[in-house]
Amino acid sequence: MTTATAEQTAGSLARARRRESVARFWRQYRTQRSGVYGLAGLLLIAVVALAAPLLVGGDVQSVTKAPGTALEDPSGRFPLGTDQFGRSVLALLIWGARISLTVGLLAAALSVAIGTLVGIIAGHFGGWFATVLMRVTDWFLVMPTLVLAIVLATVLDHSVWTVILAIGVTAWPITARLVRAQTIAVESRPYIERARALGGGHGHVMTRHVLPNVVPLVLAQTTLGISNAILTEATLAFLGLGDPTVISWGGMLQDAREAGAVSSGHFWYLAPPGIAIALVALSFTLCGRAVEAVLNPKLGVGR
């Protein structure tokens, strides 16, 4: 057998193992009823968000082209009423899903990426360098995430990218702690010693052996982190620290407060974005718990 044929065979076997691993994960995931419900909810919301331009058009944010009058009651034309500018609350709700989901996904990805990098480096190298990294992690851990995010969002420009950065750089310590502990556990196994004895350097050990073993933990942490990121984005927008030029669910809550929806009894303006935030956060949490249960059967089954 030639070298090229051997490499092709090895690649085919690796792809077959990955396909089997994904299929096994899905079979086990389907046994988690709460996770299936959460995934179904997320898929529905994602489809609505992606199809928003087709469902509500591109002028939904325009104040000058508002189709109704200020704070109309729910009707056949406006199922959830209108806002203080005469825009359809239902259309705003559908359009706002795009920003809220985007911010949640990107902020959680940034947070998990930072936490994974810090955790693997600290767990692999150890010594005084790891001690310094963990003390920095502890400082971020004891500081309220929301307070740090508010400070960053206040200092920087009010934009979607500022919100993503503010959430991402303040929510990574928990991931770093978990990944560091998993890295230390992985590097105590015999095959790591064999890899080092065969000449594997730091980069080889961390990327080829440690990283694949912490990916399941990172995946579960990501699904849980997205719900927290969406809630934090909504809080920042509600406090007026979001981008005022875009529509998000948190921004809708801020607009409803400014319009006096609470005191005037216009519940149809205030309730929909709050319920949407709660449902998305619940769906991501259910998916995250289901992933944890699949990857760690000791957590229990049949959730």
Task: Describe the structure in your own words.
With 303 residues, the protein is mainly alpha-helical. It has a single domain, classed as MetI-like (MetI-like fold), CATH 1.10.3720. The protein has 13 helices and no strands.
Q: Which helices and strands appear, and what pairs or packs with what?
A:
Elements: H1 3-29, H2 33-50, H3 52-56, H4 89-125, H5 127-142, H6 145-155, H7 160-168, H8 173-187, H9 190-197, H10 202-238, H11 249-258, H12 261-264, H13 267-295
Helix pairs in contact: 2-4, 2-13, 4-5, 4-7, 4-8, 4-10, 4-13, 5-8, 6-7, 7-10, 8-10, 10-11, 10-13, 11-13
Provide a quick synopsis of the model.
75% of the residues lie in helices and 0% in strands. It is mostly helical and 303 residues long. The N and C termini lie far apart (50 Å).
CATH class: Mainly Alpha
Count every helix, treating DSSP H or I runs of 4 or more residues as helices: 13
Query: Under the CATH scheme, which architecture would be assigned?
Result: Orthogonal Bundle
Order of helices and strands: HHHHHHHHHHHHH
N- and C-termini, Cα separation: 50 Å
Number of strands: 0
State the low-pLDDT regions, or none. 299-303
Q: What is the overall shape? A: elongated
* Average pLDDT metric: 84
- How many domains would you count in the coordinates? 1
CATH superfamily: MetI-like
Portion of residues in helices? Answer: over 70%
CATH-defined topology:
MetI-like fold
Structural class by SSE content? mainly alpha
- Beta content comes to under 5%
Give the radius of gyration.
23 Å
Largest sheet: none
